[in-house]
Design goal:
The protein has helices at residues 31-43, 56-67, 75-80, 127-138, 144-159, 173-176, 195-198, 200-209, and strands spanning 9-10, 15-16, 83-85, 92-103, 109-119, 123-125, 141-142, 163-172, 187-194. With 212 residues, it is of the alpha+beta class.
Length: 212
Amino acid sequence: MVPKSNLTRVGSDGHYADSFEATSESEVYDAAKEQLVRQMLGEIGEDPQREGLRRTPLRVAKAMDFLTSGYQMSAEEIIKKAVFEEDVKEMVIVRDIEFYSMCEHHMLPFFGHAHVGYLPNGRVVGLSKVARVVDVFARRLQVQERLTNQVADALMEHLGAHGVAVVMEASHTCMMMRGVQKQNSTTVSSAMRGSFEADARTRSEFMSFLHR
């Protein structure tokens, strides 16, 4: 069996490189997951042995490990390695962070943009790490409401900010491809902590930046 480490990790933040294809006809990545995919293909009336599907179980197993790699990441580790002492009092906002996640109810994707702001309390964090924290929680089976709160709570706890604000806008394929089949609907969720929750003016300032 080829070990899962062949989905090469980049750094220590749990991000995988994109080596999802089989390296040989005989490669086995995760025998248990691959067998489950073969079984599912058979249950829907497909032939797992036909040419176009022979390597599908391996690709799906690798893809699922990538799409759920957030379980192997730590927001605390990501943040603490990139915190800098700075006497900054003004709001910091990282806007339009693309994210992709999977609905835990149907295991179908939802995707969109996250907008994250915080009020520093003597410390700032590397900007890319804000996006990494979003990925920590997005790359798990999720509901958007919980995802939004988890990002806010992690930044509030590990950055020690005066306040944190998170707004997420997403399209859910479980609404687009099945069920009500509303392709143009979007869902907006928010989580406010500290100053953003307590002070309407601070919250309003943050929201005003999202539409400029």
